[in-house]
Protein backbone atom coordinates (compact mmCIF):
# COMPACT_ATOMS: atom_id res chain seq x y z
CA UNK A 1 0.00 0.00 0.00
CA UNK A 2 1.54 3.38 -0.98
CA UNK A 3 2.37 5.80 1.80
CA UNK A 4 0.31 8.95 2.30
CA UNK A 5 1.95 12.37 2.26
CA UNK A 6 1.46 12.64 6.01
CA UNK A 7 3.40 9.42 6.55
CA UNK A 8 6.28 10.61 4.38
CA UNK A 9 6.49 13.89 6.31
CA UNK A 10 6.70 12.30 9.75
CA UNK A 11 10.48 11.86 9.66
CA UNK A 12 11.42 15.46 8.81
CA UNK A 13 8.71 16.75 11.16
CA UNK A 14 9.57 14.32 13.98
CA UNK A 15 11.25 16.80 16.39
CA UNK A 16 8.36 19.27 16.17
CA UNK A 17 5.72 16.54 16.37
CA UNK A 18 7.35 15.10 19.49
CA UNK A 19 7.29 18.44 21.29
CA UNK A 20 3.67 19.04 20.31
CA UNK A 21 2.62 15.50 21.27
CA UNK A 22 4.16 15.73 24.73
CA UNK A 23 2.30 18.96 25.39
CA UNK A 24 -0.99 17.51 24.20
CA UNK A 25 -0.58 14.35 26.26
CA UNK A 26 0.05 16.38 29.40
CA UNK A 27 -3.11 18.43 28.88
CA UNK A 28 -5.31 15.54 27.71
CA UNK A 29 -4.59 13.43 30.79
CA UNK A 30 -5.68 16.09 33.27
CA UNK A 31 -9.30 14.92 33.56
CA UNK A 32 -9.78 11.82 35.75
CA UNK A 33 -11.87 8.75 35.13
CA UNK A 34 -15.19 9.41 36.89
CA UNK A 35 -16.26 7.49 39.98
CA UNK A 36 -19.12 5.03 39.89
CA UNK A 37 -20.05 1.43 39.25
CA UNK A 38 -18.25 -0.54 36.56
CA UNK A 39 -20.58 -3.51 36.62
CA UNK A 40 -24.16 -4.24 37.54
CA UNK A 41 -27.62 -5.37 36.51
CA UNK A 42 -30.49 -3.15 35.45
CA UNK A 43 -33.83 -3.32 33.66
CA UNK A 44 -36.37 -6.04 33.01
CA UNK A 45 -37.06 -8.23 30.02
CA UNK A 46 -34.92 -10.64 28.01
CA UNK A 47 -31.45 -11.04 29.49
CA UNK A 48 -28.56 -9.30 27.75
CA UNK A 49 -24.94 -9.70 28.79
CA UNK A 50 -23.00 -6.58 27.84
CA UNK A 51 -19.26 -5.90 27.96
CA UNK A 52 -17.90 -2.40 27.29
CA UNK A 53 -14.18 -2.14 26.56
CA UNK A 54 -11.92 0.68 25.56
CA UNK A 55 -9.82 3.70 26.37
CA UNK A 56 -10.52 6.90 28.31
CA UNK A 57 -13.72 7.57 26.38
CA UNK A 58 -15.11 4.17 27.35
CA UNK A 59 -13.91 4.86 30.90
CA UNK A 60 -16.01 8.03 30.89
CA UNK A 61 -13.38 10.76 31.07
CA UNK A 62 -15.20 14.07 30.66
CA UNK A 63 -18.25 13.00 32.67
CA UNK A 64 -18.85 13.66 36.36
CA UNK A 65 -19.91 10.12 37.23
CA UNK A 66 -20.14 6.77 35.47
CA UNK A 67 -23.92 7.16 35.36
CA UNK A 68 -23.42 10.17 33.04
CA UNK A 69 -20.64 8.48 31.06
CA UNK A 70 -20.96 6.02 28.20
CA UNK A 71 -21.50 2.93 30.35
CA UNK A 72 -24.21 4.48 32.49
CA UNK A 73 -26.07 6.11 29.62
CA UNK A 74 -25.87 3.01 27.41
CA UNK A 75 -27.06 0.60 30.08
CA UNK A 76 -29.89 2.98 31.03
CA UNK A 77 -31.15 2.98 27.45
CA UNK A 78 -30.76 -0.75 26.94
CA UNK A 79 -32.52 -1.42 30.26
CA UNK A 80 -35.72 -0.08 28.71
CA UNK A 81 -35.77 -3.22 26.55
CA UNK A 82 -33.64 -5.82 28.37
CA UNK A 83 -32.42 -6.99 31.72
CA UNK A 84 -28.82 -5.94 31.25
CA UNK A 85 -25.93 -7.63 33.03
CA UNK A 86 -23.04 -5.35 32.25
CA UNK A 87 -19.34 -4.88 32.87
CA UNK A 88 -16.89 -2.10 31.98
CA UNK A 89 -13.21 -2.80 31.27
CA UNK A 90 -11.56 0.43 30.20
CA UNK A 91 -8.68 2.67 31.18
CA UNK A 92 -7.03 5.89 30.13
CA UNK A 93 -4.24 5.33 27.63
CA UNK A 94 -5.46 1.89 26.54
CA UNK A 95 -4.63 0.60 23.08
CA UNK A 96 -6.12 -2.42 21.36
CA UNK A 97 -3.07 -4.42 22.42
CA UNK A 98 -3.28 -3.51 26.11
CA UNK A 99 -7.00 -4.28 26.28
CA UNK A 100 -6.35 -7.55 24.47
CA UNK A 101 -3.71 -8.50 27.03
CA UNK A 102 -6.10 -7.66 29.87
CA UNK A 103 -8.93 -9.73 28.38
CA UNK A 104 -6.65 -12.72 27.93
CA UNK A 105 -5.96 -12.87 31.68
CA UNK A 106 -9.13 -11.81 33.50
CA UNK A 107 -11.97 -14.03 34.66
CA UNK A 108 -14.42 -14.54 31.84
CA UNK A 109 -18.10 -13.73 32.02
CA UNK A 110 -20.53 -14.29 29.13
CA UNK A 111 -20.86 -11.25 26.87
CA UNK A 112 -23.55 -11.52 24.20
CA UNK A 113 -22.79 -7.98 23.07
CA UNK A 114 -19.47 -6.14 23.24
CA UNK A 115 -19.09 -2.41 22.67
CA UNK A 116 -15.54 -1.39 21.81
CA UNK A 117 -14.21 2.18 21.91
CA UNK A 118 -10.57 2.04 20.88
CA UNK A 119 -8.23 3.67 18.41
CA UNK A 120 -7.16 7.11 19.61
CA UNK A 121 -4.14 5.78 21.46
CA UNK A 122 -3.32 3.43 18.59
CA UNK A 123 -3.18 6.58 16.45
CA UNK A 124 -1.01 8.59 18.84
CA UNK A 125 1.40 5.69 19.20
CA UNK A 126 1.84 5.50 15.45
CA UNK A 127 0.44 2.01 14.88
CA UNK A 128 0.08 1.16 11.20
CA UNK A 129 -3.24 0.23 9.64
CA UNK A 130 -2.00 -3.35 9.20
CA UNK A 131 -0.99 -3.68 12.85
CA UNK A 132 -4.21 -2.03 14.01
CA UNK A 133 -6.47 -4.33 11.99
CA UNK A 134 -4.44 -7.38 13.05
CA UNK A 135 -4.91 -6.46 16.71
CA UNK A 136 -8.61 -5.74 16.18
CA UNK A 137 -9.07 -9.12 14.48
CA UNK A 138 -7.25 -10.85 17.34
CA UNK A 139 -9.42 -8.95 19.83
CA UNK A 140 -12.55 -10.23 18.11
CA UNK A 141 -11.21 -13.79 18.26
CA UNK A 142 -10.59 -13.55 22.00
CA UNK A 143 -14.01 -12.02 22.64
CA UNK A 144 -15.69 -14.78 20.64
CA UNK A 145 -13.79 -17.70 22.16
CA UNK A 146 -13.33 -16.57 25.77
CA UNK A 147 -16.47 -14.46 26.25
CA UNK A 148 -18.85 -16.09 23.76
CA UNK A 149 -19.56 -12.74 22.08
CA UNK A 150 -22.17 -12.84 19.32
CA UNK A 151 -21.91 -9.19 18.28
CA UNK A 152 -19.03 -6.74 18.68
CA UNK A 153 -19.93 -3.14 17.93
CA UNK A 154 -16.72 -1.28 17.11
CA UNK A 155 -17.19 2.47 17.45
CA UNK A 156 -15.48 4.47 14.75
CA UNK A 157 -12.58 6.75 15.55
CA UNK A 158 -13.29 10.42 16.27
CA UNK A 159 -12.28 13.12 13.74
CA UNK A 160 -8.93 13.92 15.32
CA UNK A 161 -8.09 16.27 12.46
CA UNK A 162 -10.81 18.61 13.76
CA UNK A 163 -9.63 18.87 17.37
CA UNK A 164 -9.06 22.63 17.82
CA UNK A 165 -6.66 22.17 20.74
CA UNK A 166 -4.32 20.00 18.70
CA UNK A 167 -1.60 22.21 17.18
CA UNK A 168 -0.67 22.02 13.53
CA UNK A 169 0.92 20.05 11.94
CA UNK A 170 0.23 17.42 14.63
CA UNK A 171 -3.52 17.83 14.14
CA UNK A 172 -3.28 17.08 10.43
CA UNK A 173 -0.93 14.11 10.95
CA UNK A 174 -3.15 12.51 13.59
CA UNK A 175 -6.30 13.27 11.63
CA UNK A 176 -4.98 11.50 8.56
CA UNK A 177 -3.89 8.50 10.61
CA UNK A 178 -7.24 8.33 12.43
CA UNK A 179 -9.05 8.30 9.09
CA UNK A 180 -6.71 5.57 7.85
CA UNK A 181 -7.31 3.34 10.88
CA UNK A 182 -11.06 3.93 10.80
CA UNK A 183 -11.16 2.88 7.15
CA UNK A 184 -9.22 -0.24 8.06
CA UNK A 185 -11.64 -0.99 10.89
CA UNK A 186 -14.66 -0.56 8.63
CA UNK A 187 -13.11 -2.86 6.01
CA UNK A 188 -12.38 -5.51 8.64
CA UNK A 189 -15.91 -5.33 10.04
CA UNK A 190 -17.45 -5.60 6.58
CA UNK A 191 -16.04 -9.10 6.11
CA UNK A 192 -16.13 -10.30 9.73
CA UNK A 193 -18.98 -12.51 11.01
CA UNK A 194 -19.48 -10.78 14.39
CA UNK A 195 -17.81 -7.36 14.03
CA UNK A 196 -19.99 -4.36 13.20
CA UNK A 197 -18.58 -0.89 12.56
CA UNK A 198 -20.58 2.06 13.89
CA UNK A 199 -19.35 5.47 12.70
CA UNK A 200 -19.06 7.98 15.52
CA UNK A 201 -21.69 10.41 14.22
CA UNK A 202 -21.50 12.92 17.05
CA UNK A 203 -21.46 16.53 15.79
CA UNK A 204 -18.17 18.29 16.39
CA UNK A 205 -19.54 21.18 18.43
CA UNK A 206 -18.39 22.76 21.73
CA UNK A 207 -21.33 21.33 23.69
CA UNK A 208 -20.18 17.82 22.81
CA UNK A 209 -16.64 18.42 24.09
CA UNK A 210 -15.41 18.12 27.67
CA UNK A 211 -13.54 20.97 29.32
CA UNK A 212 -10.19 19.66 28.09
CA UNK A 213 -11.28 19.95 24.45
CA UNK A 214 -10.44 16.32 23.69
CA UNK A 215 -12.84 14.01 25.48
CA UNK A 216 -16.63 13.75 25.06
CA UNK A 217 -18.96 15.75 27.26
CA UNK A 218 -21.89 14.20 29.11
CA UNK A 219 -24.13 15.36 26.27
CA UNK A 220 -21.87 13.60 23.77
CA UNK A 221 -21.96 10.41 25.83
CA UNK A 222 -25.76 10.58 25.82
CA UNK A 223 -25.90 10.86 22.03
CA UNK A 224 -23.26 8.17 21.59
CA UNK A 225 -25.25 5.84 23.88
CA UNK A 226 -28.42 6.47 21.86
CA UNK A 227 -26.64 5.65 18.61
CA UNK A 228 -25.19 2.47 20.10
CA UNK A 229 -28.57 1.37 21.46
CA UNK A 230 -30.17 1.79 18.05
CA UNK A 231 -27.28 -0.05 16.40
CA UNK A 232 -27.42 -2.95 18.86
CA UNK A 233 -31.19 -3.38 18.58
CA UNK A 234 -30.96 -3.29 14.80
CA UNK A 235 -28.35 -6.06 14.71
CA UNK A 236 -29.79 -8.39 17.35
From TrEMBL:
Annotated SGNH hydrolase-type esterase domain residues: 53-223
Domain of life of the source: Bacteria
Keywords: Hydrolase
Pfam families: Lipase_GDSL_2
KW Hydrolase (keyword) present: yes
SUPFAM superfamilies with a match to the protein in the record: SGNH hydrolase
Name of the protein: GDSL-like Lipase/Acylhydrolase
Lineage: Bacteria, Pseudomonadati, Pseudomonadota, Alphaproteobacteria, Rhodobacterales
Amino acid sequence: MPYGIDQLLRIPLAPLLLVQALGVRKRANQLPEPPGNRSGTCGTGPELNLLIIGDSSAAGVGAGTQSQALSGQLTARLSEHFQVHWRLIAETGATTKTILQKLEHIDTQPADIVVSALGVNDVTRGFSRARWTHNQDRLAQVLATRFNAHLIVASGLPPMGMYPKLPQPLRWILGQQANRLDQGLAALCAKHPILSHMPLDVPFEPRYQASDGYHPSEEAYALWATLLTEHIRKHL
